[in-house]
Amino acid sequence: MEERDADAQLMLRYVAGDARAFEELYERNRTGLWRFIRRLVRDAAATDDVFQECWSRVIGSRERYRPTARFTTWLYRIAHNCCMDHWRKSGRRAAHETTDDDAIAAAADSPASGPFAIAVADEARGRLTLALARLPEDQRVAFLLYAEGGLSVAEIAEQTGTGAETAKSRLRYAVARLKEALGNDAPVD
Amino acid sequence: MEPRNEEPFDREPWRRLLDADSGAPTQDMDRRILAEARRALTPRVARWWLPASLAASVLLAVLLVQRQLADSGAPVPVTESDVLSAPAPIAADDATPAAALELPAPRQEESAKPAANLRPPLLLDLSTPESRRAPAAPQGASSTADATATAAPAPAQAQAEAESAVTPGMLKAKESYAESRTPEEWYAAIEALRTSGRIKEADAELARFKSEYPGWLERRQQQHP
Q1: C-beta separation of B37 from A59 below 8 A
Q2: d(CA B185, CA B163)
Q3: What single DSSP character describes residue B119?
Q4: Residue B164: CB partners within 8 Å, gap ≥ 6?
Q5: Cα(A83)–Cα(A65) distance, rounded to whole angstroms?
Q6: For A149, which residue in chain B has the nearest alpha carbon?
Q7: How far apart are the C-alpha atoms of A5 and A103, rounded to whole Å?
Q8: Which fold is adopted by the domain A97-189?
Q9: Going by CATH, does the domain composed of A1-96 fall within 1.10.10.10?
Q10: Per-residue b or e along B76-92, where b marks 16 or more CB atoms closer than 10 Å to that residue's CB
Q11: Contact call for A128 and B21, based on CB within 8 A
């Protein structure tokens, strides 16, 4: 919690005109956010575009930022909105409502989760990437917002425009599928 | 922050597994975003400063004009009530020089003009005939000011326009304002009126100006074609 509060403090310092605070804030969140977007968008070029757009919105809306919630909650909500805008523009949202073979193939071809990487470097990680790609879009969004973005069930429900029970159900289904894919490498509750 | 007692599963092991994944934005991307963040801080002052300075300039100009209008009442030697209550002898002595009227000394370019061309101490467009016959005359001064005032002919149409452009309440201020200005200042004010879109008022003022400074505009145009 302290780290999240630290993010909010950095954002407030940036709002007050401290550019160094933004550098630190960016450094703390850049990798996680980039991976979050990549797992949702699943396209290298689009990931960069959405990532940059996300930070542009953070910068552009800094005057409206209020630390009423954790900074990462705000950040990942913006990122999810950017992803949805990307899907709307590219018209790919409908294609991702269910399992997307193209996305699975793209995930398997990526340097981090290619067959070689899966076999040699980090098999569990590669299987997680593939399993995530196989998840239906809504479940993947819910899982990533929860596990990576740190949003609560209620926040996920609000962000995705569903009820809390639906969001919780999506999370449970997602975890069940991921556990099934990972086998013994799955985290134990 | 929000209660976490409804968490469907522990997110931390999953976060660690996700964090083990490689992949990160490129350094070029990092540079672009950090540069954008720095840029966003810098021009904020300029964005605020530009409209503010523009508004301040406009406000200053308006205030200056208003103040000039307000201050112009101070040096007026005679009020409208003085004018209305004054006896109305007309054209007592046309031969009296303008200097005897305690008028401000004519400017250099006006010195060559006959006395009839000098601006009279009271404007000619007062609303009543009595007031036209009873122009301002400083106490102790000769009533030949009347002659000076009536000696400056004003075209009837221009005068009518001038009268319609101002209300009686504004008349006094306009009179004293006109008196306190040099021809150059008056003409500049007329141009400012025209520039600001107040064409009718500008035309009325110009008519009055021409009646009080006949030939001045033509001479100026010859000097500054």
Answers
A1: yes
A2: 21
A3: P
A4: B204
A5: 20
A6: B15
A7: 35
A8: Arc Repressor Mutant, subunit A (1.10.10)
A9: no
A10: bbbebeebeebeeeeee
A11: yes
pTM: predicted TM-score of the whole model, two decimal places: 0.50
Is pLDDT of B113 > 50?
no
Half-sphere exposure of A181 (CA within 13 A, CB side): 19
CA angle A153, A156, A158 (to 5 degrees): 110
State the DSSP code for A118. Answer: I
Do the beta carbons of residue B149 and residue B122 sit within 8 Å?
yes
When pLDDT is cut at 50, 70 and 90, the band that residue B222 belongs to is confident
Domain residue spans in chain A? 1-96, 97-189
Say which range, A73-82, A137-146, A159-168, B95-104, has the weakest mean pLDDT: B95-104
Collapsing DSSP to helix, strand or coil, A94 comes out as helix
Nearest to B212 by CA among B143, B126, B125: B125
With an 8 Å Cβ cutoff, is A183 touching chain B?
A: no
Model pLDDT for residues A55-90, shown as the tens digit of each residue: 999 999 998 888 888 898 899 999 999 999 998 888
Question: Domain boundaries in chain B?
Answer: 68-223
Please indicate whether, in this complex, the C-beta atoms of A124 and B17 are within 8 angstroms of each other: yes
Q: Say if the Cβ atoms of A171 and B37 lie within 8 Å.
A: no
Structure tokens at A68: 């009423």
Q: In the prediction, which pLDDT does B167 show?
A: 58
ipTM summary value: 0.77
